[in-house]
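Reply to dn_fold:

You asked what the input looked like. This is it:
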Amino acid sequence: MRYYPIQLDVQGRRCLVVGGGGVGTRKVDTLLSCGAQVTVVSPEVTDGLRRLSAEGLIRLWERAYAASDLEGVFLVIGATDDEDLNFRISRDAAALNILCNIADRPEKCNFILPAIVQRGDLVLTVSTSGKSPALAKKLRRELEHQFGDEYAVLLRLMGATRKRLLAEAHAPEAHKPIFEKIVHSDILRWIRDGRMQEVNRLLAEILGDGWRAENLLSEEDDGSGH
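and this is what came back:
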């Protein structure tokens, strides 16, 4: 394995996307969903990018890329079909020690982007280390069928349960058997089938009276804990 797998925090960080076509638009959407401050530079851009700019969600420079665009940038993505431009972006980023990804050109990157399946806070990634994007896409589609929205609900329940237990001064090491019992039950099937009474029965059995899924989900949504 050549690449070091990480989950990168880009919340509030300045990120640059060079290229305003379909690929660039998808890269922008992902960065925005992760809370990045995004700037796009490209002489031509999609209607979607213009809409994001009009809504104040991105900064848009409709012109050619310049090396000075990298000033203060945490991460840059090159999403152009111009090989010379891609090389320039990669070279300029390397000189400034900036994280750089060039779409479909792993040899010009210091990090690559995996295929992603997301169910709420559950993020599954697939990487072929740049060898076969087609295979990564196939595997992603298989995972999309295997992991449904019930995983997002379960993770919200688990997060709220953990917050509440910590607030009640439980020792973190005491949580492991509790969570093991929950995840190794039929809770995913019950959530998928809408059988929340079974979920509540399980929570009461493991955690005691007063533990109900609807309350936990409400706490997780408003971030209040208990």
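The chain has a mean pLDDT of 93.
Hope that clears it up.
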